Description:
Elements: H1 3-7, H2 11-15, E1 34-38, H3 46-49, E2 55-60, H4 63-72, E3 77-80, E4 93-99, H5 108-118, E5 119-130, H6 137-147, H7 156-166, E6 169-173, E7 179-185
Parallel strand pairs: 1-2, 1-4, 2-3, 4-5
Antiparallel strand pairs: 5-7, 6-7
Amino acid sequence: MSIFSKVAHRYDNFVGKFNLDDLLEYLPLDSENILLDLGGGTGRAAEQLQDHVNECIVLDPSYEMLLEAKKKTDRFLNIQAVGEALPFRDNSMKQIFLNDSFHHIKKQRETLEESFRVLKPGGKLIIREFDKNYFWNLFLRFAEFIVGFGSKFYSPKNLAAICEEIGFQTSWERPNRSTFILIAEK
């Protein structure tokens, strides 16, 4: 059982509320299409994003986290799967969002490659992450190491470079000093 499965019932209380208002201007959401919330856990982001897109799908490897998502609403579909083996056809999605979850993914490059495969031409992978180089994030990185998450963080430039190797066109914004939003377009 993963750490996320063990803490699922308290996860939202621990990490706090997802504040969409602070990010909305940075997220290139397409209201006509489905949004895949990859690593969406308890659905805390999808719960707010669902009013800005056609439909949300929450995908997470933890069954217990998805049970918590189900308690919030039945408006989005919950799928238990991993990012490196997305259960979708090639060129089938227009938008994929990862909110503070990429650093938890063990097979990060494979997840980026799978996202590229699943996205339609012109589709966007939107990654909101903590910047490895921001000084105060050192404490977050240390805490995640102590807890045993095995997290791997990037700077926006390093993550953009990996995405570009895969074939994405990238840009990034900084909504605050500790986080960045990377937009990777297929």
